[in-house]
Amino acid sequence: RTRIQKRKRKSVSFYTAFSYAKVLNILHDIIQLKKIKFNHFHKHFKYNNKASKHGIINFV
């Protein structure tokens, strides 16, 4: 019994670590997309009050 439980725990922790890494990867992609979008947006409008309120300027 104990051996099986230990094995299960190991596989679960590995799975959670893998999914966590996946989520981090997705978050990184989203931040990169925001950077690109804001840089493109910044070219057209020198300053936007809404963007600064939401802290999007921090991405640049």
From TrEMBL:
Lineage at the top is: Eukaryota, Viridiplantae, Streptophyta, Embryophyta, Tracheophyta
Name assigned to this protein: Uncharacterized protein
The organism's superkingdom is given as: Eukaryota
